[in-house]
Every structure is written in structure tokens, then in C-alpha cells.
Specification:
Elements: H1 15-57, H2 59-64, H3 67-106
Helix pairs in contact: 1-3
Amino acid sequence: MAKNVAGSPLERNSLASLDQKLAMAKRCSHEGVIAGAKAAVIASIATAIPTVASARMLPWARANLNHTAQALIISTVAGAAYFIVADKTVLATARRNSFQQLSKNDV
């Protein structure tokens, strides 16, 4: 009797469909890594220039920001930029792919 019941789309997935989803997930994560790395490089440069310049020119910064503090400021901004951009890219790519997959199922 259970053979006459229509299965859900999740139950009908074949091994090829699972491989396709895995490949799509890898592509999404790869795009996120690339976008995050680009954002981290740009954020590092954009943060390093004013941080190092202020540590050399401003009396307060010269007295309080040693090399470790400067590196911590720069690396914190770079890490935050990486994770924020990578996360947003992965989510946007996954959302775009899910809408494409939904439109393929409707056709």
C-alpha cells in the first residue's frame, strides 16, 4: 500500500541529484572564500594606512599603540571583513541557487 503513495521531493532524490547539490554547495563556499579573501585584503590595506600613519604622527597613538596593537587592529578588521563578506556571499549564492532550482521544478 505504501507503493501507491506519492513520495515527497526529498524522497525522490537520486544519487546524481545529491552529487549535484554537493557540487553546488562546494561552488557556493568557494565563491564565499574568494569574495571574503578579496574583502580581507582591501580591508587590511584600508586599515593599515591610517593605523600606521596615526601611530607615527599623533602623540597619543605614538605613546599607546605599539606594533602589537597596530597588528591587532589591522588583523581584527581583516578577519571581520572576511567572515562578513564570505557569509553574505555564501547565503546569497545559496538563495539564488535555491530559487533557480525551484523554478526548474515548476517547469
